[in-house]
Amino acid sequence: MKKWLKFSFSTLLIAILMFSLAACNNDTTKTKKLEKVRLAEVTRSIFYAPEYVALEKGFFKAEGLDVKLTTTFGGDKTMTALLSGGTDIALVGSETSIYVYTQGTDDPVINFAQLTQTDGTFLVSREKIDNFSWDMLKGKTFLGQRKGGMPQMVGEFVLKKHGIDPHKDLNLIQNIDFANISSAFASGTGDFVQLFEPTASIFEKEGKGHIIASFGTESGHVPYTTFMAKQSYMKEHNATVERFTRAIYKAQQWVKTHSTEEIAKAVQPYFQDTDFEIIKMVVDRYKNQGSFATDPILDEEEWNNLQNIMKEAGELPKQVDYKTLVNTSVAEKIIQK
């Protein structure tokens, strides 16, 4: 009887050991199966909250992807990284895909998943204004964004919409580098400035300026920032693009159904130098004005609105058909499922 017990106990130990080794091997296999995807974002912004949610909540990993995020700081640098093979997927303004295409290419950049659907900038005044009207900008100094970029084009589009010629009715400054616009305003340059968050809210909290209007609300829906890849990558890695888009869609739906505080907590690790209350304020502002797209489909109306804005700013090289640079087949397939 003792021999049988000894044998049974030994057998049990061996079985446990074998099970543990198998479990470890399975974990290793799972890790090995994660496919690396290089993702470059044009800047680090709370505006891109669903992207960080997809990373932080493990939606990419659940799809078998190991997404490595880098911030390239600028549309030109982001597109260069994509075209040169330095990244697989880029998050950048859709206007960049038009610029590349019209310059001539055998491998165009394709927009396959939309992340934000409005402009993300706000009009900030130096003095507090209780009853703001756009004609108050006439004759004033306005610090705009870089010429040719979406913020600048949307800014001019909105000004013209309100009967203001940005080049005649005000003193327009556009020669200050993006990174230095806020500091220029803080040091006393300009009466009004066009700023992204969280800078706009930080300025308001510190008494350096006052948010008086939203360019996103004024300009309507546009494919402001989208995920894009070269056509060749889309063909060769169709399954990867599908899994990537599915993770983004999950994140978009998560952002749609969760509170401002929950979203702010999810993205906080990516903004460790920003006060949590400011993060909440910014998320709330973008969420309430519908800046976060709730699905990855870039529709034709948005595409046409984008080109109208570019044309109005004198920056559209030529009209590009929606189907030439936009592929919604992957996004539509995911949503239908």
TrEMBL record:
<comment type="similarity">
    <text>Belongs to the bacterial solute-binding protein SsuA/TauA family.</text>
</comment>
<dbReference type="InterPro" id="IPR015168">
    <property type="entry name" value="SsuA/THI5"/>
</dbReference>
<keyword id="KW-0732">Signal</keyword>
<protein>
    <submittedName>
        <fullName>ABC transporter substrate-binding protein</fullName>
    </submittedName>
</protein>
<dbReference type="GO" id="GO:0042597">
    <property type="term" value="C:periplasmic space"/>
</dbReference>
<feature type="signal peptide">
    <location>
        <begin position="1"/>
        <end position="22"/>
    </location>
</feature>
<dbReference type="Pfam" id="PF09084">
    <property type="entry name" value="NMT1"/>
</dbReference>
<feature type="domain" description="SsuA/THI5-like">
    <location>
        <begin position="49"/>
        <end position="259"/>
    </location>
</feature>
